[in-house]
Write a structure and sequence with these properties.
single chain, alpha+beta, Protein Transport Mog1p, Chain A, 3 domains, three-stranded mixed beta sheet, 15 helices, binds zinc ion
């Protein structure tokens, strides 16, 4: 706070001298207030909300969601009641049609389950438990939980988290899934990702929760629901969760980011003023219908998906041709061997490039991964981010060990590091060399992992060098 030279009316000085000092004080105060105001305005900006980096394409989110939805609907009792269903669709569509929901093919289904829960799968399928409707005090609260779930879908939190957790096996899996046209969830199951308890796709971080609250608030506001009801409902449920009620799962998947009401209130200040008139007044009637629903049937068992494709055991089949093609991403461009195909979202900066014959289920035997690694500290320090990336790679593949520690070098005038690792190769009886190259970028690293069987490595180094020499960034 600005310090007053002396408060009005308490001047200890003689009148004239004092007036001068007093006025100086006023000016000083005004300037300080102005500075404080400018500082506060620049700090307290409305938070930018957009999806984090992701190895999956948006289409893959959608495909995954459809496959999981088919599995889930065999296991949970979906309510077939036209009135309840129509009610849920009306609310859902009002929210999903907001531009912030990013036009995923959202679906809304009611699950006959007394526990207070709701969840959304990547790409849009959204489920609301009857227990949640029973617990909501008003339609805005119900819409609030749905908007929060929609926000997780639009911000792609599930696949963002999976991408961060599986830096090597996921690109391999995605290349395999695309090459074979296989079920994406079947491939995910092979690398240990499913929808079970604590699934990386469904258990969100506190940061993701805060962002889902904020984007959910924008969606609600746009649809004519009062965003504060979402935060109030969460806080009310959390207060009750301590008393052993049936809300455990929701807060285990959606941990409280803290100060929910306050942060939604802050967000509302940025939103266009609305009369919150969307609520239909039908909630009491719907609660009555829910009370009259027959008891749910017992859930079935989940089928275990089959194994993915297996590559050729002859590494020569996946060797680079010696000729190159240009890859153009959003910010990055580079050359790659022309007999290797690009997998991942075309035109993005996260791609896996290889010959299909080098994919063995969840492992790549030969090829390259190009991707972005978000700085965990958000400080963007080349050395420590590279160390974190290597640690993450080794968590993802426990057979991996560093054989040459990271060293700095300049790559086309960019600050870069390289490290060499070794691991088990999917080519039988072979070891594999993984060359990791990291490039300093705003917010983290752009990195390449070049993968080859040890016996192939001397012959392929030249091709990897060519790729690296061609790397350019748009800015
Ligand atoms: Zn959440």
């Amino acid at each position: 706070m600005p310090k007053l030279l002396h408060p009005a009316g308490l001047c200890p000085f003689a009148a004239r001298k004092c007036r001068v000092r007093y006025h100086e004080g006023m000016k000083l105060r005004r300037v300080t207030f102005l500075l404080l105001f400018v500082a506060a305005a620049s700090v307290a900006q409305q938070r930018q909300l957009k999806p984090g980096w992701n190895l999956f394409s948006k289409q893959q989110d959608v495909q995954m969601g459809k496959e999981y939805a088919a599995q889930i609907e065999k296991q949970v009792p979906v309510v077939r009641n036209s009135e309840l269903d129509a009610y849920l669709q009306r609310i859902g569509q009002k929210l999903a049609s907001r531009p912030e929901a990013d036009s995923y093919p959202y679906t809304f289904k009611l699950v006959n389950d007394k526990s207070i829960n709701a969840f959304a799968l990547p790409g849009g399928p959204t489920y609301v438990h009857t227990g949640l409707i029973a617990a909501a005090e008003n339609e805005d609260q119900l819409a609030g939980v749905m908007a929060h779930e929609i926000a997780h879908v639009a911000l792609r939190h599930g696949t963002n988290q999976a991408s961060k957790a599986q830096l090597i096996s996921l690109p391999a899996m995605l290349a395999g899934a695309l090459a074979g046209g296989d079920s994406i969830t079947g491939m995910l199951a092979q690398i240990g990702i499913g929808l079970g308890a604590n699934s990386v796709l469904m258990k969100f971080s506190r940061n993701a929760e805060r962002d889902a609250d904020l984007l959910g608030a924008r969606i609600m506001n746009g649809a004519g629901y009062n965003p504060i009801e979402m935060a109030r409902f969460f806080e009310k449920l959390e207060a009750e969760a301590g008393k052993g009620s049936a809300i455990g799962q929701f807060f285990s998947d959606h941990p409280n980011p803290g100060n929910r009401v306050k942060s939604v209130q802050d967000e509302i200040r940025y939103l266009p003023q609305k009369k919150y008139a969307a609520a239909s007044g039908e909630l009491p009637q719907m609660k009555k219908l829910i009370e009259d629903l027959p008891a749910p049937r017992k859930p079935g068992r989940q089928a275990v998906p089959s194994a993915g494709p297996t590559g050729s055991q002859d590494p020569a089949a996946s060797r680079p041709s010696g000729r190159f093609k240009q890859y153009q991403g959003r910010e990055v461009s580079f050359l790659h061997p022309d007999n290797w195909d690009v997998f991942g979202e075309r035109g993005s900066d996260q791609v896996t490039i290889l010959n299909q014959s080098a994919v063995f289920g969840q492992q790549i035997g030969y090829g390259m991964i190009a991707s972005f690694f978000e700085s965990p500290s958000r400080r963007s320090d080349l050395r420590s981010d590279t160390a974190q990336l290597l640690e993450q790679l080794r968590r993802d593949n426990p057979s991996m060990r560093v054989t040459e520690n990271p060293r700095r070098f300049r790559l086309n005038n960019l600050q870069a590091m390289y490290a060499r690792l070794q691991s088990d190769s999917p080519f039988r009886g072979s070891r594999e060399i993984d060359l990791v190259v990291t490039i300093d970028r705003p917010g983290g690293l752009y990195y390449f992992v070049f993968i080859a069987p040890e016996s192939e490595y001397p012959g392929v180094q030249n091709a990897f060098d060519q790729v690296l020499r061609s790397v350019r960034f748009a800015n």
